[in-house]
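#random but structural
TW: two for the price of one
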Amino acid sequence: MDLASLPEEIKELVRAQLEAGHFQSVDEVVCEALRLLSERDELFAAQGAELRTQIAEGVEAEERGELRDGEAAIADVRRRIDDRLRGRE
C-alpha cells in the first residue's frame, strides 16, 4: 500500500506503529485500523439500539403514570450511595 496520498499526520501514525514493532507492514496497520473502525461502528449501533429501547421504556412508564419526581429519585440514589459507603448495602 502506498502512503503517498495520505495526510502527513496519518503517515506519521502509520510509521510510528511500524517503528514500534506493532505491525510488520502498512497493510497490517490499515487492516487493524479498519477492523477497529468496524468494531466501533458495531458498538455504537448496539448502544444506540439499547438507548432507543430505554427511551421507549421511559415513554411507556410515563404513559402509565409511573415516573418519579427527579428530586426524589436523586435523593434515593444519594441515600443508597451513603448506605454503601457505610457498608450497609
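TW: number two ↓
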Amino acid sequence: MVYDLNNSLEIILVNTQLPENLGATARGMLNFYLENLRLIKPNFHMKNEKILPLSAGADHVIKKVKVYENFETSISDLDYIIATTNRDRTLKKKISILMKFLNL
C-alpha cells in the first residue's frame, strides 16, 4: 500500500499558548506541503488577529484547522502517533493512552 504522506499526515498542537505559534506552524507545514492541522484546547480564539500574518500565505491551512477539546478525541481516527516536545519537563505524565494505541 502506498500512502500519500502530504494528505495522510496530521500535525497536532496541544494547549498552544500563543496565536503566533499557530501561524508559524501553519507556515512551516506549507513549506513541506502539509495541510492537516489539529489543535487541542488552544489558549486563544481562532479569530485572533496575530495568526494570519505569521502564517505568511498558509491561510488555507488555518481555515482547515480542526479544534478538539481533548487529546483522546483528536487521535481517535489515527493509526500511528509520534509525539515530540521542545521543553524539558520535570513532571512525568502517564502515557497510557499512547501505550494503548501502540499495543505495548
